[in-house]
Design goal:
By secondary structure, the protein is an all-alpha fold. It has helices at about 5-20, 25-35, 40-65, 70-95, 100-125, 140-160, 170-175, 180-205, 210-230, 240-260, 265-290. Helix 3 runs parallel beside helix 9 (about 210-230).
Length: about 300
């Protein structure tokens, strides 16, 4: 048993339960940076443990009524084959280029993390108007079905190659494209991710990229973590949680780039996300101060 890995699993599990985000986006860089796990094995093990963790979270969200089954199904139509292509692609590249491909893979992971971090921070800081357009369910028109399958295909490919994006990028699509309410975003995101990660995780296991002992240590922490997170979902405000998670992902991206050989000083890995966090807090306070209360109509006189 590795207490550090169990602690990582607990923390990431809580974040998955609360936000639908944090599995591949956090666990893969944590395994690479702090546990010294080979990048391809970190990706495969991350996807395999994530399948089990998000199955628990998806089941709890389904019972709570926060899953849009129609959108989940059509996302999976694209993401399942996309993830298989991603797994085959990363295995062939690693087989062809050997250990020299590791730095390229780390850079790819870091780029995916940066996209996720910027997306979350941009949504939290600069897109408050999207809240007014949110809805509880989506009508499954032909256009919606095709759009969901196409988005799933692209993001499934990314997840299969890097393990990053099953929560964060698909969650962003559920916000920007399908305009679901926050709780429905989390529930639908986690439920769909369970389907996607079972496919990609099994493919990596068949390829020999899954460390079962390491996965067991992660699950010891992540299963109770996701149970706690889903229990707190309706009680914790997302306004502060999303920017904090974006800053953590930004730090992870910089750390992985440093691991790949980029000349990034430790002060920048800590200082840049901290500065962004301060900016997010200032923007949030200004938004609260500038918010104008809506005037209620005067009651009619008899």
């Amino acid at each position: 048993m590795d207490p550090l890995v169990i602690a990582f699993g607990l923390g990431v599990g809580v974040l998955i339960g609360l936000t639908g985000i944090g599995g591949g986006s956090l666990m893969t860089p944590l395994l690479v940076l702090f546990a010294g796990v080979h990048p391809v094995v970190a990706i495969g093990t991350d996807l395999a443990y994530g399948a089990i963790t998000k199955t628990l979270g998806g089941w709890r969200n389904l019972r709570q009524g926060t899953v849009d089954l129609g959108v989940s199904r059509w996302l999976a139509v694209g993401s399942v084959p996309g993830s298989l292509v991603g797994v085959v692609g990363v295995n062939r590249l690693h087989h062809t280029y050997g250990s020299s491909f590791d730095d390229t893979l780390l850079i790819t992971i870091a780029a995916a993390l940066l996209v996720v971090a910027v997306s979350i921070l941009g949504r939290a800081l600069f897109m408050p108007a999207l809240v007014a357009r949110e809805r509880d369910t989506v009508e499954l028109t032909t256009r919606v079905r095709i759009g969901a399958a196409s988005i799933g295909l692209v993001l499934g490919l990314l997840v299969g190659m890097t393990s990053v994006g099953s929560g964060a990028l698909i969650g962003l699509a559920l916000i920007l494209v399908f305009r679901l309410t926050p709780h429905r975003v989390v529930g639908t995101d986690v439920f769909h991710a369970a389907i996607l990660l079972w496919t990609a995780g099994l493919a990596h296991w068949v390829s020999g990229n899954v460390d079962l002992t390491l996965m067991a240590n992660i699950l010891i922490g992540s299963l109770p973590g996701v149970w706690i997170g889903t229990s707190l979902l309706t009680r914790v405000p997302a306004a502060g949680l999303r920017p904090a998670l974006g800053c953590v992902l930004l730090a992870s991206a910089l750390g992985v780039l440093s691991k790949a050989g980029a000349d990034i000083p430790p002060a920048a890995i800590v200082g840049v996300p901290a500065a962004v966090g301060v900016l997010a807090a200032v923007v949030h306070r200004l938004r609260l101060r500038l918010r104008v209360p809506v005037a209620l109509p005067a009651p009619e006189r008899a």
